Amino acid sequence: MGRHKNTDGTFVPVGLKIRFEIVNRLYQTPGRSVKIPSARELAARFHLSPSTVTLELQKLVREGYLIGKRGSGTYTNPDKVHFIPGAISRKVVGILVADGKLLVYDAIDWAVQGWCGMALSPDVARPRFVTLLTASEKNMQEELISQNLSGLVWIHPHWDYYGVIRKLQKNGLPTVAVKCNEPDIPSIDYSFFESGSKIAKIAAQEKRRLIFYAPTNKDIWTLQRVAGIEDYIAHHPEADMKLEVFSSVQNCTEEVEKKFAAGEIPDVFYCNGEYVFAMLELAKKYRIDIIDRCRLFAEEQHIIKSGKFHGYALRYPFQKIGEKAAEMMEILLENPSARFPVYSVPTELLFINGKEPL
Questions:
Q1: 49-53, 162-166, 234-238: segment of lowest average pLDDT
Q2: Closest to 202 measured CA to CA, from 89, 40, 313, 353
Q3: pLDDT for res 166
Q4: Cα 245 to chain center, whole Å?
Q5: 230, 173 in Cβ contact below 8 A?
Q6: Tell me, what DSSP letter sits at residue 64?
Q7: Is 127 helix (H, G, I), strand (E, B) or coil?
Q8: For residues 101 and 113, what is the distance between their CA atoms, to the nearest angstrom?
Q9: DSSP-derived secondary structure letter, 216
Q10: How far is CA 103 from CA 109, 139, 294, in A?
Q11: CA nearest to 300, candidates 283, 284, 317
């Protein structure tokens, strides 16, 4: 399977696009042989040259997925694939995370997509994990429509892609967005800003003044949590709190270690993402008391298996989020024009009493 150049200048394994299209047609028409679009029509849809598409269709003919009929065209071969009885009558809902091209997923990403998939299956639809080859707004829309999905749950879409979601809705593809608060999009939101405010409030209650936050890595959701901390500090000057943010994941450990080596120990340390493991190692190296001296905060998904963490865990109700996404999708599959108010879920802060020594 070669790499071929799109008309937009990007390179993709074109065979995946064409094969996906053919397999979806086989899935949608079980037991029937149907005529597929011409090579020229497929080329226009996928932004490929007709000769490139013709080569891929010829491969599928040789492998038995397609049958060429002289003077008539090319047809699917229903005898090539066999589906589980009853499975073909169920709808397929795609689950897409971020821009669909991440190579490594965060624990939060896995938690959300896992609960959404379990909530959809088996009663609402068959969930399918979706990846994308393209990046432009137009190509993303076309690629998603070409996958012949019944619906889409888009997890953590950047706001640059809200326009794509609106276009998918206009094209009849029901879409639910998780971590979004747009009133015209079926949205489920959990507020990072709110969680930041809660962190600062607890710090103030415990009379802690210096807060370290590391790292942000300029992530849009993380910066919202930082904004929540800053907002609380601005509105509660009596707490006399100061926030120091470490942004770059590449040199964050080095910067924090310099602070520790100089004896500058924070009263609160928010360990963002997997950085919690680096912080625990630094605390051990510099003999920082994380029980009384420095209060740690982290997302529950990153510390759930660690007995060394002592502090507050941020818990997002992912099961409830998944169930709500499935509930919205079930309604949309019956009525694509249905609209919902933004469903907001609160964040919990739980105290974790670590039992294992550093």
A1: 49-53
A2: 313
A3: 96
A4: 25
A5: no
A6: T
A7: strand
A8: 15
A9: -
A10: 12, 20, 34
A11: 317
Place of tokens 């049958």: 67
**Residue indicated by tokens 């892609």:** 161
First to last CA, the chain: 50
The pLDDT value given to residue 4:
47
The pLDDT tens digits of the residues spanning 180-191 come to 999 999 999 999
Cβ-in-10-Å burial (0-12, 13-18, 19+) of 165 comes to buried
Angle at 357 between CA 353 and CA 358, to 5 degrees: 110
Residue 99 C-beta-side C-alpha neighbours within 13 Å: 13
Cis peptide upstream of residue 215 (ω within 30 degrees of 0)? yes
Which residues neighbour 51 within 8 Å (Cβ) at sequence distance 6 or greater?
A: none
The model's pLDDT over 188-237, given as tens digits with 9 standing for 90+, comes to 999 999 999 999 999 999 999 999 999 998 888 899 999 999 999 999 99
Q: pTM for the whole thing? A: 0.77
Q: What is the per-residue pLDDT across 92-137, written as a single tens digit (0 to 9) for each? A: 899 999 999 888 888 899 999 999 999 999 889 989 999 888 777 8
In DSSP notation, 81-118 reads --PPTTGGGS-EEEEEETTS--SS--HHHHHHHHHHHH
pLDDT grade, residue 86 (50/70/90)? Answer: low
Tokens of 223: 């910066």
pLDDT of residue 48: 80
How many other C-beta atoms are found inside a 10 Å radius of the C-beta of residue 334?
Answer: 9
Show the domains of the chain with their CATH numbers.
4-76 (1.10.10.10), 87-190+320-344 (3.40.50.2300), 192-316 (3.40.50.2300)
The CA distance from 24 to 178, in Å, is 26
Position 151: which residue type?
G
What DSSP letter does each residue of 228-284 carry, written as one string?
HHHHHHHH-GGG--EEEE---TTTHHHHHHHHHHTT---SEEEE-TTHHHHHHHHHH
Separation of alpha carbons 169 and 178, rounded Å: 15
pLDDT at 1 exceeding the cut of 50: no
Check: CB of residue 96 under 8 Å from CB of residue 147.
Answer: no
Burial (CB count <10 Å: 0-12, 13-18, 19+), residue 49 = middle
268: left (phi over 0), alpha (psi -120 to 50) or beta: beta
